[in-house]
Design a protein that fits this description.
binds zinc ion, five-stranded parallel sheet, Rossmann fold, 7% strand, 349 residues, alpha/beta
Length: 349
């Protein structure tokens, strides 16, 4: 823990270190950036450094004292983490937080209240929080963690000091995975697929995502070419794997996006699946670019539908038929979606 273990985010960390050293900590920070890049880690490192009993000469936390160990374990009484309950952070949670921060810190020098993700705050809860942000009581720092400012009241945003977090560079993620004992080529492939999210990279590293990807792609394109019966069979199989369904569609989405980027640029240099550069280049060369961009949209739409209440089997079947239409010229589609335009024509029309 501590700032020393943070991957990337040099500017954000430098800014927070400066505030710590000068003892000019903002009353409220808004950490903005994509999920999984390490916002909560940085917030925790800040809370740790501010409360460490034996801080290092550069102001970072020692990582070993009682206070540091409590922060790491999530049991420090002055470092509070507020997360959604049943999908939202409600006004009751903010009221409880306000009571808590009205008191002196129990054992630390400064109390920290992390709200993650801040977009989960209901409007009522944000209004309640606003009062606390307007009337700071005692040595408390709020850290709101959010993907973007949309969904937050402008009045809340304006009372926070914004700190922006970008994606973590792939090379850093790959090095981190390698240090954890993962072979270099596998680490590079996982880092590319994680698209700047350390959290995603670690989650991917714990599974068999590359093997699952290869198994899925090894069957998908032959099934699309074989015909409707093979498509239904594969779609039903994918849909039955409830646990792996989201991952399968994520993999498919990334693969289609890679094919499109490769087709447009003429090389797979910017693809996430760069470990399969040869396969990408070969497939992109024979697939129609227009069909690929529609394929990306179709997979994204199916992914989104499944996050709602869409029927997995029907969604997967419809998706595979659409992909067959778009990507297999012999299926009757010319790769320009022309066949789909007639898809809903009335019989006899
Ligand atoms: Zn310490």
């Amino acid at each position: 823990m501590g700032f020393a273990g943070i991957l990337g985010h040099e500017r954000a960390v430098a800014l927070l270190r400066l505030a710590l050293r000068a003892d000019r900590m903002a009353h409220a920070y808004l950490f903005l950036g994509p999920p999984g890049v390490g916002k909560r880690r940085v917030a925790t490192a800040l809370a740790q450094a501010a409360n460490c009993l034996r801080p290092l000469p550069d102001g970072d936390a020692c990582g070993a004292c009682a206070a540091c160990r409590k922060v790491t374990a999530g049991v420090h009484p002055d470092v509070l983490l507020v997360t959604p309950e049943e999908g939202a952070v409600r006004i009751e949670q903010v009221r409880a937080l306000r009571e808590e921060v009205a008191r002196r810190p129990y054992e630390g020098r400064r109390r920290f209240a992390l709200v993650d993700p801040a977009e989960a705050l209901t409007e009522q809860a944000q209004n309640a929080l606003l009062k606390t942000l307007e009337e700071p009581a005692g040595p408390t720092t709020f850290v709101l963690l959010a993907r973007q400012v949309g969904g937050l009241l402008p009045t809340v945003v304006s009372r926070c000091q914004g700190v922006t977090f970008g994606p973590v560079p792939e090379t850093l993620i790959a090095r981190h995975l390698t240090a954890g004992g993962i072979a270099a080529d596998r680490a590079a492939a996982l880092a590319a697929l994680a698209r700047g999210s350390v959290g995603d990279a670690l989650a991917l590293a714990g599974g068999a995502v590359l093997e699952n990807r290869d198994a899925l792609l090894g069957r998908l394109f032959p099934a699309l070419e074989q015909g409707p019966a093979a498509c239904v069979e594969l779609a039903d199989e994918i849909a039955r794997e409830r646990e792996g369904l989201g991952e399968a569609l994520d993999l498919l989405l990334t693969w289609c996006r890679d094919l499109l980027v490769t087709a447009v640029l003429g090389h797979p240099g910017l693809a996430a699946n760069r470990d399969r550069a040869d396969a990408l280049a070969a497939a992109a060369a024979r697939l129609p670019a227009k069909g690929l961009s529609e394929a990306v949209a179709a997979v994204a739409a199916a992914r989104e539908a499944l996050e709602g209440y869409a029927n997995p089997r029907l969604t997967c079947e419809a998706l595979l038929f659409t992909l067959r239409d778009l990507l297999v010229p012999a299926a009757g589609g010319d790769g320009h979606g022309s066949r789909r335009e007639g898809q809903f024509r009335r019989p006899g029309a």
